[in-house]
Amino acid sequence: MPGPLAITGGEPAGIGPDIAISAWLRRAELKLPPFYLISDPAFLEQRARQIGTPIAVAGATPERAAAIFTQALPVVDCGVAVTAKPGAPDASSAPAAINAIDRAVADVLAGEAAGIVTCPIAKSVLYRAGFSDPGHTEYLARLATERTGRPVQPVMMLWSPELAVVPVTIHIPLTQAPVALSTDLIVRTGRIVAHDLRARFGIARPRLTVAGLNPHAGEDGTIGTEDRDIVAPAVRMLAAEGIDIRGPLPADTMFHAAARATYDAALCMYHDQALIPIKTLAFDHGVNVTLGLPFVRTSPDHGTAFDIAGTGKADASSLIAAIRLAARLAQHDAPALAGAR
Questions:
Q1: Contact, 295 vs 117, CB < 8 A?
Q2: What is the structure's pLDDT at 341?
């Protein structure tokens, strides 16, 4: 793996600092790859004491992180003195979170980090501070586009050993999903998923399955026409490009064990159609992966959990899974990333 992973601190009032500390404490037991956290070192030391796990924190640069990692948690300063308390975001929250993302992207595009793992942010906190992007993923895509000069379409994949799903439409009201859905959007999403499954996951011929929007995938247009008129043409176009793809299929028969064994990723038409099955199967160890970026980015598949921040109760399983997956994907990503710089 080329260099350590960069972990962003996320919302400092949330559980991001807690789970990063917990993951580092288990580094030897779990044989985790070297990583560094982008945050405020003094704040991290205070939070570690607060959750009852005082640790050695060392100010670091990406170049020195791997050497420090075995003895202390390497922390690259985010440039903000964090004053937020657990569960109580303050004026330092948004700048700390945004600075950490900016630094991580700069590091990975400079070849100093192998990939990025982002701890959860609180979008409402960022919005109040003037943040203009809908969320983490869109901001990362904008930074990548601005810094490489190449347009980026990000695709959200939720991955676990049991199941990988991609919502084609994401954080919009359910009533808007059929309006936002188009043959072109499905085709562009499918191409990116197939490409990244080959290039980063090392799957020589990815198998994709596409869920129908309507019950029974529309029953030939008798229960809604979207599957016949929008989804099916996209599947035919992707198949004509040589992608191994099936659908639209009834979503209610796609996620049992025998069905899951027939594909590598499921394209779903709206947010909950994708996230309900994976969170049922892999609630504690699912990973959010952003496809389509010129670098590896993973994230825990959960939020800031303000109610348990600073208590020591946060489960680091999803962050640990995100770290492991990022390291795995980075092994395949070095040539592609070099071409993006």
A1: no
A2: 35
